[in-house]
Amino acid sequence: MNVIDLRSDTVTQPTAAMRAVMLEAPVGDDVYGEDPTVNALQQRLADELGFDAGLFVPTGTQSNLLALLAHCERGDEYLVGMDAHTYKFEGGGAAVLGSIQPQPIVQADDGSLPLESIASAIKPDDPHFARTRLLALENTWHGRTLPLDYLRSAHDLARSHGLGMHLDGARLFNAAVACKVTAREITRHFDTVSICLSKGLGAPVGSVLLGSHALIDKARRWRKVCGGGWRQAGILAAAGLHALDHHVARLAQDHDRAATLAGSLRGIAGIDLLGQHTNMVFINVPADRLRALDAHLGEAGIRISIGYLPTLRLVTHLDVDDDGIERTAAAFAGFFDNK
Ligand SMILES: *Cc1c(COP(=O)(O)O)cnc(C)c1O
């Protein structure tokens, strides 16, 4: 019985075809800028998304951190969503390593930072205040896509105050596929964009930060400082290139399967369907039955994460097929019918 792992889209296994290109990838020393596969990956994404340059790094956390360090100096601040990954789930890295102060802003239900809140959080030029330098957005956020007209307005507002714009686009391609636009339609509003290759795109490791030559040069310096200057990383970059060729359009299937799963769960008494956004389904179940549910699903070969109670997040990805969705729906139905 194959396991259906719905904890996250980070759990995907590299496909046989991906492993084959990794094996054959030409490589060199990336600290010297000599890895042809790393260079190809960086340039490909930069060209596709309208930036000068890219920087291949091990994780999305490091990519976001390098962006903040490139945009901001000690004593600067960045505006960020109160529930944004960059603020909440990255160990406070920009404050720890860059003396950069976050100014968190309460998000609307769709993940956007209300324009009025942004405007009122921007500090005047006065020695009492940190210097407001940057607006950081996230798309998708908890699977939700930010509307394109919101991105334009946020960009215009930020620019009118001289702020830079950073996008945590860990799942940028999920957003583009769901909104039926090119990724560039989204990224054109930003100075830097961070993209994860190791989520729904299915590569084993890696993120790419995109920006101007000046910002990427700064980020490369900080990458070295953080110990992230790597060598024959082309083996990993090859997986990223393969993912961009073969795993972008198919994200629509993950979204469809999440919608199918949500449709099945909606009808089950005991489950409160909160919503489905791109490749994520959110449900509440009675807290006192959670452990039993987890055990029941485990016996059926289904893994869920019960970390953020009482809401469960079920994530579809490359390794969850139609049969997996059916088995999951059946296992939930079985549990709640037979208490
Ligand atoms: C996963 C994720 C990151 C960080 O990626 P890691 O590779 O796990 O460090 C950043 N932002 C968002 C929105 C993510 O989902």
What would your notes on this structure say?
The protein is globular. The strands form 3 sheets. It has a 7-stranded mixed β-sheet, with helices on both faces. It has a 3-stranded antiparallel β-sheet with strand order 9-10-12, with helices on one face. The protein contains 14 helices and 12 strands. The model has no long low-confidence stretch (mean pLDDT 97). It has 339 residues and is of the alpha/beta class. Bound molecules: pyridoxal-5'-phosphate. Residues 59-61, 64, 85, 138, 168, 170, 196, 198, 207 line the site of pyridoxal-5'-phosphate (PLP).
Give short descriptive properties of this protein.
12 strands, 339 residues, binds pyridoxal-5'-phosphate, single chain, 7-stranded mixed beta sheet
Topology order in helix (H) and strand (E) letters: EHHEHEHHEHEHEHHEEHHHEEHEEH
Helix count equals: 14
Molecular shape:
globular
- Assign the structural class, choosing from mainly alpha, mainly beta, alpha/beta, alpha+beta, or little secondary structure: alpha/beta
**Annotation, overall tally of beta strands:** 12
Strand order of the largest sheet: 2-8-7-6-5-3-4
Percent of residues in beta strands? Answer: 15-25%
Q: Could you tell me the radius of gyration in angstroms?
A: 21 Å
Average pLDDT reading: 97
Bound molecules: pyridoxal-5'-phosphate
